Amino acid sequence: MNIDQADPAEPASLRAAFDIDDGGESALGWEAVHAFEADHGIVLPEPYRTFVAEMTDGSCSGPPDYGLLPVADLPGDWGDDERDRDLSKPFPLTEAWMWEEDPDASDDSDEVLEQVYNHGSIVLGTDGCAMNWHLVVTGPHRGHVWLITDVGAVPFGAQFGFTTGESGFAGWVRHWAANKPWHDAA
């Protein structure tokens, strides 16, 4: 997983997974990507950065179940605390945390929980029922995809033991495309 330089082989697999065939019309463009990054004090990890700049900024096809959100959007059921999100502050986790089952959770856990939802990640989209996929943009797990739900958070990728897929945005997309039962049925 290279989060600083796009792999030349990845654009074709990403286009195929998202069924993008609009010549880049749905892409955000480099100027808008640079503006977003400057506004938030971050640099998006590759290959997601190139994906939104050159291919598409959001898609109804592809992962997750309800589609990929544009880079600056949040799921419709997110609530009204959008103003508290700070992408430049580090995402606080480096290992799975199931707070609903954590006997060591304390009053300090609420503060960390707020950071899990609001620091250092963009929301890629939702599988519904408060199951949101995040791409970490700041902190030790920069470039990794996490599933954050109302009961816990887990990193995506074989190295973490929760799936056979590769870590990162491209690995998450490839895993979804390979395991989508209706992928070739249409």
From TrEMBL:
Residue span, Knr4/Smi1-like domain: 31-148
Name listed for the protein in its UniProt record: Knr4/Smi1-like domain-containing protein
Organism the protein comes from: Streptomyces pristinaespiralis (strain ATCC 25486 / DSM 40338 / CBS 914.69 / JCM 4507 / KCC S-0507 / NBRC 13074 / NRRL 2958 / 5647)
